[in-house]
Every structure is written in structure tokens, then in C-alpha cells.
Amino acid sequence: MWWLLPTASASTFMPAQGTKIAAEVDTIYAFLLISSLISFVLLIGGMCYFVVKYKRKSANDKTEYITHNHTLEFLWSFIPFLIFMFVFAWGWMVYHDMRKMPEDALEVHVFAKKWDWRFVYKNGKEVTAALDENMKLQPSTMVVPVGRPVKLIMASEKVNPSGNDPTDRPVLHSFFIPSFRVKQDVVPGRYAALWFEADKAGLYNVFCAEYCGGGHSAMRGLIRAVAPAEFEAWLAGEAVSTEAVAQVNPLVAKGKTLYAANACIGCHSVDGSKMTGPSFKGLFGKTEQTDKGSVKVDENYLRESVLNPNAKIVAGYPPGQMPPYAGQLSEDDILALIEFIKTLK
Ligand SMILES: [Cu+2]
In angstroms, what is the span from residue 117 Cα to ligand 1's centroid? Predict the structure, then answer.
């Protein structure tokens, strides 16, 4: 059965560790578990011992009058304080590793919808759930190279991305890879990022960890970590889903087409020259001065700038010149535009 994957050994409490971070998380977890167990034994054991030791033995057995003990009170406050601060600092360090996105990562786009995942690679290759040779439905399987950081840029989309049904709205999901001990909410209307580096080849479960409706429990995917050479061959090879075949245009080429087709070209140059709007050249990654302060140009900023240009106005430009593209471009279109802008170094 699918949940009994070869990587999940039945002898451990937790799913098999697939990353270095997973080992770090498990060490903290073990520390918390063991230190809690020790405190539990000391506290409850001490309590039971005192119950017996100081049991009233006769009717005129009187307890001595005790007020307080400064040394004892200080110690039982200060020692736990030190332990808590130690756990806090340790946890903070691991969390920092988890959230600090590596610069040179392989980027994969993740789309979440009711109730499936869709993975899109830079070259336009798309992976969705597909039938295998035995005509059994295989969940969307993201293939990644072992030993290389992978950064996921995730968005939530409508069930029918090109439809106009107002009741079809993207909802909250959460991308969870138990073996990697990482999880990230995918919030509608913005990009969320997550990274991991698979240690060893294998097949790992992906679950949606945020109740997102009737099909939530069936919303799963797989990550297949393979040797780098095998990954390159897979990426260059034929697309796996029928939908992907239709999407022969690499993302960047699609973005370039949209740039021309949606009038961006009339206001934004790609060579650094200033037109009605700022040039796209060197835009990604730089720090932009806006009326809301300085911002780092990342995927979320670009997305917002296209959908709702007046949210932040670039310094030196009057507001209201760029038309908002909300409702006119799909998540796929915006993604392609962003990938196009990223290439304009
Ligand atoms: Cu979900």
C-alpha cells in the first residue's frame, strides 16, 4: 500500500529521515521528550514519595510551620529557565536553517488546488497525477536530484484556472513532506516558499496538512529523489502528463509572449531604458524604493505589482499609470511573466 513506502521503516516512531534538517528536528524532539520524561518522573515520583512519607499517622500529628526557602525557590525557577532558553535557542537555529532559502537552489513551482498538486519546472515540464502502465492513478510525482537544494515556489489556484466561476476560489493548503520534516502553508493570493535537500534516493510522501475541503485526505503527492544524472535525463525527457504535452512552450518563452501581448512592452523596456514605467532589466533581486519604503524584488512583489500596481508605487513614477491586471492574467501567466523578468539580468 502506498503509505508503506520502502523509505518509511516500521521500527521508528517517525517516518525515515530524508534530509539533514530532519535529523536536527528529531534530535530536538528527542531532547524534549527525554527531558520531559525526566521531569515527569522527578515530579510525580517525588509527589508519591512525599504522600507516603508525610502521611498523617495519628490524630494529633501536626505539620511543622514552613514559610519559604529562598535558595530552593530560586533554583527551581532558574534551572527550568535555563533549560527553556536553551531549547528556544536551539529550536531557533534549526528553524533558521529551515527557512533560509539557498541561493543556488533548483526552483520548482508548486500549484495547489482542490484536490491535487501540480509541479512545473523551469523548462515548462509539468507533472500532474497520471495513469501508470497498469492504468492505476499515480499521484503527482516531483522528481528531484539527490544532494542539491530544491526551492519550491508555491501558489494556490482555482480548480479551473481559466474559468470565470466566482464560487471557484483558491483555498488554503499546506505542503507537508513528513520524511523531510518541513511544512509550509500555501496561502491563496501570494507565493510561499519552502526548501529541502534530499539526502538519499527514495520515494517520499507529500500530504496536504491543512483541511481544505471534502477531498483533503486524498490530496497527496510524491517526491522521487534520484541521482543527479538520472534527474537531468528525466527533465530533458518526454513530459509525463497529457496536459504537459500541450505546454511545449518553456515558461520564459511564454512570459515573453505575454509581455508583448499584454501591452507591458509599451511601458517597460528590457534593455534598461526608462519608458512610462521602469525597465525590467536587472529588476529581479534588487532593492526597489517605493512609496511604502524599500522592498526586495522577489516573486511576491512582482506578482503584486502586476495584479495590483498601486499597492506600492515605484519612487519617481506617478501612481495610477499602470492598469491592474487582476482577473486578466492566470497564475500560470503571472508565473511565466516572472520567469521572463528573472532572465533579464
Ligand atoms: Cu489541500
Answer: 9
DSSP character string of 8-50: S-TTSSSPPP-SHHHHHHHHHHHHHHHHHHHHHHHHHHHHHHH
Tell me the mean pLDDT in the region 29-35.
90
Q: Kindly state the DSSP code that residue 314 receives in the 8-state scheme.
A: B
CA of residue 208 to ligand 1 center, whole Å: 5
Strand partners of residue 182: 177
pLDDT exceeds cutoff 80 at 46: yes
- Residues 206-264 have pLDDT tens digits of 999 999 988 899 898 999 999 999 999 888 876 544 344 334 446 777 888 888 888 88
Cα of 22 vs centre of ligand 1, distance in Å, is: 23
Please tell me the distance between residue 262's alpha carbon and the centre of ligand 1 in angstroms: 32
What's the total number of domains in the chain? 2
Tell me the CA–centroid distance for residue 213 and ligand 1, in Å: 7
- Determine the distance separating the centroid of ligand 1 and the alpha carbon of 27, expressed in angstroms: 29
Q: Are residues 195 and 175 in the same domain?
A: yes
Quick one: pLDDT at residue 135? 67
Would you say residue 2 lies in a domain? no
CA of 207 to the centre of ligand 1 (A): 8
| Long-range CB contact pairs, 88-93, < 8 A, 24+ | 90/28, 90/31, 91/28
Question: How remote is the CA of residue 171 from the centroid of ligand 1, in Å?
Answer: 8
Q: Is residue 8 part of a domain?
A: no
189 and 114 inside one domain: yes
Q: Whole-prediction pTM value?
A: 0.69
